[in-house]
Amino acid sequence: MSGRPPSGTDRSAIEFEREAYGAIIEHARAGAPEEVCGVLGGEYGAHCSRVRTVRRAENAAENPETRYAIDPAEAIGLIEGIEKRGEDLVGFYHSHPVGPTEPSRTDTERAAWPGKSYVIVALDGEPFVGAWRWNGEDGRFEGETVRLLPRER
Fold this sequence. Notes:
By secondary structure, the chain is an alpha/beta fold. It is built from 3 helices and 7 strands.
């Protein structure tokens, strides 16, 4: 992956292989009206990452209709599984069954992995995927460009 933002933009990007993109949307639809969550693996880059692997997690939040939480032990196990495949941790995903693709205040307060992507699947109407990188230095999310890769032949 490139060490600089994609050409034509100053934003970082996250690229999804089609199967991975479909997997997070399918998980979000299947889990509605509760939020779903999981871990993303693939190739991590400082400004452009590629998602190849999706690992579902159990939503351990007390109120899963409006929050998500991944049990720390489960998160470590999922990340170790991704790394055993020779992939990098790209980030995390969750759904907003009713709401925008922007991180909520709670999402911002709970972010813990600087530089990693936080992908949100909104189900309000047609599914829409938004992505954000958390900047741990100043505690804010920066929008990422989401790209769906063409099918490999």
